[in-house]
Design brief:
Layout (H helix, E strand, L loop, with lengths): L5 E6 L31 H15 L2 E3 L18 H23 L1 H7 L3 E4 L4 E3 L4 E8 L3 E4 L10 H23 L5 H4 L15 H6 L11 H14 L2 H11 L24 E4 L8 E4 L1 E4 L7 E4 L5 E2 L2 H15 L3 E2 L8 H20 L3 H14 L2 H9 L3
Parallel strand pairs: 1-5, 2-3, 3-6
Antiparallel strand pairs: 4-5, 5-6, 7-8, 7-12, 9-10, 10-11
Helix pairs in contact: 2-3, 2-11, 4-7, 7-10
């Protein structure tokens, strides 16, 4: 069975008092010395962490993996110093500073996690064939895995493993503090599947109103995924997901998407006829995937394994196929679900929730995140650590 490798997990529990709206004290670590050892190789980085996380946001940034902080069911290794430093710098720039720019320091100081924990290796789940990307525990701690595979030249990879996960988990923290409207759950009633979402393809679930396969697992994951994907995916990436949401999908067997039972089937949204005189003999194409070797971008796959990642590229490809075959045919949409409209309604509910409950513009936050994703200079950020005295 084809299984998606990547999952995000949130351990849903009531928020502790540290994440309430009560006035915060100067620190939540009064009995712990905040002065690093000047003789340590990591002195500058440790001091930078204190100055930028502990002193400002009451956050303990743990990059030296401790057994007490790790799940003993997994075989895990620590993050390397260089990767931990770079991810800490980007966490501040792309996550904390995005909220700070829009709301000031107090918002994320009040509601953000109290512990950020980095792990170098994946947390692999052999029973399901999945990897856990992040854990949020009771609103207190967020753990990020696979830090040693970080590629600073690939923002899509950074989002896939870290920053989409951060926004997803912070979304859980926020909605545990102030619940989102129950109308959100009603949009996909009866269509959530917590047991086999891993085998679903992005295009197929989009047509059923879910922004990602993981969003189709549970309503609360759907809400967090709606937030995280809207904030981190580029307009071109979102447009392709919405294009897929408008399509009908079927398997090579020709069954409609509401009749297929095979969890591991490829779903296609277009076909050509090898022989116009034999309309039952169809050659399907455009199944959807998000491939690691294609810079972690969502895409659809053409007749000869072409990987297309924008709507513009898809439309140009369809013209080429039509010139060769004489006609291309979209798969009939028979599931009676307007996936595009459902996704847009979910985004609208999230947008209004940010405005009504948090006095935050969802769109302004997205613009800030998108801009920062494009303009970060890792060498300039590293200099913040190196310039520590």
């Amino acid at each position: 069975m084809k299984v998606s490798k990547y999952i995000m997990a949130a351990m849903i529990a009531p928020l502790l008092a540290s994440c309430s709206e009560d006035k915060l004290g100067p620190t939540i670590f009064p009995e712990v010395s905040d002065e690093p050892d000047p003789s340590s190789y990591t002195y500058k980085f440790d001091k930078w962490l204190n100055q930028n996380f502990r002193d400002v946001y009451n956050v303990d940034f743990k990059y030296l993996m401790e057994d007490v902080e790790a799940d003993m069911e997994y075989n895990l290794v620590p993050a390397t110093y260089d990767n931990a430093r770079d991810l800490a710098l980007l966490t501040k720039y792309l996550w904390y500073d995005s909220y700070k720019e829009l709301t000031g320091e107090d918002f994320i100081k009040s509601y953000g996690p109290r512990i950020l924990h980095l792990v170098g290796s994946p947390a692999y789940n052999p029973q399901t064939g999945t990897e856990t990307l992040g854990l949020a525990e009771g609103g207190l701690k967020v753990t990020l895995f696979k830090v040693n595979e970080m590629d600073l030249d690939d923002i899509n990879m950074l989002n896939e493993y870290y920053f989409r996960t951060m926004h997803h988990e912070f979304g859980h923290i926020l909605h545990q503090t102030k619940s989102y409207p129950t109308d959100f759950n009603l949009l996909s009633t009866g269509r959530y599947d917590d047991s086999s979402w891993q085998s679903k393809q992005p295009g197929y679930v989009a047509s059923r109103g879910f922004i990602t396969p993981y969003a189709s697992s549970q309503a609360r994951e759907d809400f967090a995924e709606t937030i995280a994907n809207y904030l981190t995916r580029t307009p071109e990436q979102m447009d392709l997901i919405l294009w897929m949401a408008k399509q009908g999908w079927t398997t090579e067997s020709g069954k409609a998407d509401n009749e297929v039972e095979e969890d591991d089937a490829n779903y296609y949204c277009y076909y050509v006829l090898d022989d116009p005189k034999n309309p039952e003999k169809r050659h399907y194409f455009f199944h959807s995937q998000e491939k690691a070797y294609k810079d972690y971008r969502m895409g659809v796959i053409g007749l000869n394994d072409e990987y297309l990642t924008t709507v513009e590229a898809v439309e140009a490809y369809l013209k080429q196929v039509k010139e060769k075959y004489g006609e291309v045919y979209p798969v009939e949409d028979t599931d009676q679900i307007n996936g595009y409209e459902v996704i847009m309604q979910k985004q609208s509910i999230a947008r209004n929730w940010f405005t009504d409950q948090w006095k935050i513009s969802f769109d302004d936050l997205r613009n800030i995140v998108q801009r920062r994703q494009k303009d970060f200079d890792i060498n300039a950020l590293r200099n913040e650590v190196e310039s520590i005295q």
